[in-house]
Every structure is written in C-alpha cells, then in structure tokens.
Amino acid sequence: MPALPSTNPNPTILITGANGYIGTWAVKTTLERGYSVRAVVRTESKSASLRELFGNYIEKGKLEFKYVEDLTKDGAYDEVVKDVDAILHIASPLPTQSSDPQDTIPPAVEGTLGMLQSALKTGNNVKRVVITSSTAAVVTNDLEEARTFTEADWNERVIKQVEEGGSNVHFFLFYRASKILAEKAAWNFYNTNKSSIGWDMTAINPPYVYGPSLEPHIASPSSIGGTQQLWWNQVVDIPSEGLTKEALGIKGGNTWVDVRDLAEAHVRALEREGAGGERIIVSGGPYIWQEWIDTVNALASPAIQPVLPKGYPELASGEIPYHIRVDTSKGERLLGLKYRTKEDMVRDIWADVERRGWSEGLAKKGSVAGL
C-alpha cells in the first residue's frame, strides 16, 4: 500500500524519540523533505534543542510537539497518533548498567506494542508505521566462523543467554534481547491484526550508529553519550586498556551506519511502496576499530595528529577478513540507498570537532600521543 497518500498535499509524520541522536536527524530529514512533523518527547524541556535547531519550521507551522512521559503507559499514544499520516517509531530504552533485565526488556516491548495499539485504535489516517529495530535482533555475535547475516536471521541465541543467565549476564545483552523481543512482538501484532488495520509496517535494522551530532550544546566529548561516546573512546581518546590488538582487530569489529544515512532510510521507508511489510538492514559495511583510527589520523589537522592514538596499523593493511558482515542488498533495492564511506563520516565528524573547539582540548591533553 502507498505509504503517504497522494491525496494529502501536506502529510504529517509522527516521530517518537525525536530529541535523541537518531531522532533529531530524522526530524531534520523529514522536514527538509517537505513534510510536517509531530515530534514526541517525554517532557517540554526535552524539546529545547529541537526548538533551537528548527525554530523556522515551528514558525511556519511545520513542526509541533507532543509530550508522552511514560511510553509504556496504556494508551500513551492514543491522542498523539490522531490525524497523522505515518509514524516513525524511534523511541526505545537505551542500554543501562542495570543488572535486572526487567529494567530494559519490558519497556522496549511495551513501548512498541503501545504505539501499534494506538495506531490501530485512533490512527485513522495512518498509512505506514516504521519502527527502528537493530541488527542486534539479527546478528549472532561470538560465532567462531565468519558469517554474512540477512533479514532472514534472528538473534535467538541472546534470548537464551538472558533467560539462562538472568542478572549474571552483561547488561548489554539485555539491550540486544530487548530489540529482538520488541521487533518480534511488533511483527506478531501486525500479522495478527492485518485484516483490521489500514496501515502496513516496516522495520529498519541498523547496526552501530556513528556520525556527527546535531545537538547544539555539548560541552565536551565526555558529554556525548551513546554510540557516539563509544566511537570517540575507541578511536580518539582510547583508555590504555582498550589498546590491545584483539580489541582493535577482527574480534572487536562489527558493522556500522552513518546516522544521516539511517535517517534517510527511515524517510524513504515511508515513501517507497515496496518497503511495506519488510524488514530492512541498513548498514554502511563492516569495520574494525583500527580502520577508524587510521582514517582519523589521515584526515585530522596536522596539529592534532601527534596526539592521536596510532594503534596497530598492520591490522588494517591489505584485505581485512571481517568476521561479521550484513547483506544490505534489500535496502539498496527497495530504498535506493547509497551509503557514506568511513572517510566521509570521519571528515564530517572532524569538522564538527573543530567547530565545537574540542580539537584544542585534545592538543593540550596530549595523553594519547605515540600509542
């Protein structure tokens, strides 16, 4: 079914998690495409950065805000889905260091089902719902052999690990389990209610998300958070215990996507008829951390290069036998996606670093020189 009705000259897109790293880029991409956006955040104070970034769209009546403090509350989205044409459901609990899986898994599942239930009850104009899942729901880590994963794969192993280990397993496994269980619950709801809903659904499965931030006020790199913080700490400001060949090489590798390409994928999933009812992996490709270190060293300003970590350049010389790959052919076919390269992303991240004045702090610190 067509995602956005041609009869409506000004479709409104509901975006949850709108003030987050991915959500902010999704708001920007959606607005620049000409759509109106109804941005959902938890509280009014959480909308401050969006108001600063997109004030001109607010003045034009193209951006409005709704507040849903408890995403798991029954009927939480009933009012906000009214009169919207499509939904980007990006909101999801982030990984925490809680030892209780109940702090992560039920909120993810209940928040996703709550959105779909509201779309069924009161979303009379909705034509497509796009949910943000993850390759955590696809890729089984810690396999002995190298493998390429597709949309047909499910990370069933992590569910078993959490069920058997409970609070004794690493907290990040709770996050992985939450993504697979939330996505499975969504597809079950969609298939069970297909005869009574007027919309279809797409799941977007990104891996690790890196790239520049739109957040206007970040005091220092230590304040970034999330996957941006992970990238910075693994590439630019590496703690001494992270500089091992194992961590920077094949066993520490994974797959990635630029946050801007992910935002574009979400919007195209609204627009492309063929994306309905599909699960789509979105990824710029595989990596090992040494590649990022080499790329930063090649593209950073000469004044900064002496204090950047060097790692073990031999790890990224020649053809790299990546342990984990994902097949992105479906997204390229259905959404027409073309991805930024590692060089593209690092160049733009470093421009952002310079703009925020962080490079000066690095030069003064100098604690990673020669590593």
Automatic annotation (TrEMBL):
<comment type="similarity">
    <text>Belongs to the NAD(P)-dependent epimerase/dehydratase family. Dihydroflavonol-4-reductase subfamily.</text>
</comment>
<dbReference type="InterPro" id="IPR001509">
    <property type="entry name" value="Epimerase_deHydtase"/>
</dbReference>
<dbReference type="InterPro" id="IPR050425">
    <property type="entry name" value="NAD(P)_dehydrat-like"/>
</dbReference>
<feature type="domain" description="NAD-dependent epimerase/dehydratase">
    <location>
        <begin position="13"/>
        <end position="279"/>
    </location>
</feature>
<dbReference type="Pfam" id="PF01370">
    <property type="entry name" value="Epimerase"/>
</dbReference>
<protein>
    <submittedName>
        <fullName>D-lactaldehyde dehydrogenase</fullName>
    </submittedName>
</protein>
<dbReference type="GO" id="GO:0016616">
    <property type="term" value="F:oxidoreductase activity, acting on the CH-OH group of donors, NAD or NADP as acceptor"/>
</dbReference>
<keyword id="KW-0560">Oxidoreductase</keyword>
<dbReference type="InterPro" id="IPR036291">
    <property type="entry name" value="NAD(P)-bd_dom_sf"/>
</dbReference>
